[in-house]
Structures are given as C-alpha cells and as structure tokens.
Amino acid sequence: MSGVAVAHRVGYKEANRVEFTVKDAKQAGLWGKAGSWQQYPKRMLQWRAVGLLARDVFPDVLGGF
C-alpha cells in the first residue's frame, strides 16, 4: 500500500511523481499512530505524498518550506 502524487509544473519537461509507502511511514514513526493513521491509513499515505510533492515542485508557492 502506498500513496502517490503527480504534478506537472509549467516550464518543466516532465511531471514529478512522489510515492510514500508503508515502509516510509514506519521509518518516520507514523504507521500505527493513534488517530488518523489507524482510521484512514490509505488517505494518510496519499496526503503525505502530496505534501512531499508540493515541497519538491512548488517550494516558492509554499514560501520556501
């Protein structure tokens, strides 16, 4: 199981793709956490992928974060 996000920025030749897996979540200490990670694990993986992609592709929009 994993979450995947894809975005294409104007001026870039190719789209960027980020995948966040259960293994990644376990390494980050997120997998099995009480709350949303137990209730909606697929959704949490998706949103983690979206956040990483946004930081990679649109750092200027996010204020450099």
What count of structural domains?
A: 1
Number of helices: 3
| Average of the residue pLDDT scores | 94
Parts with pLDDT < 50 across at least 5 consecutive residues: none
H/E element sequence? EEHHH
Shape: elongated
- Which structural class is indicated by helix and strand composition? alpha+beta
Number of strands: 2
Instruction: State the helical fraction.
Output: 40-55%
- Strands of the widest sheet, in order across it, are 1-2
End-to-end separation: 27 Å
Strand-residue proportion: 15-25%
Biggest sheet descriptor: 2 strands, antiparallel
Radius of gyration: 13 Å
Which features characterize this protein?
single chain; elongated; two-stranded antiparallel sheet; 18% strand; 65 residues
Mind explaining what this structure looks like?
The protein has one domain (2-8, 17-57). The chain is built from 3 helices and 2 strands, in the order E-E-H-H-H. The chain has helices at 22-27, 36-39, 41-57; strands at 2-7, 16-21. The mean pLDDT is 94. It is α+β, with helices and mostly antiparallel strands. Helices cover 42% and strands 18% of the residues. Strands 1-2 form a two-stranded antiparallel sheet. The radius of gyration is 13 Å and the shape is elongated. Strand 1 and strand 2 (16-21) form a beta hairpin.
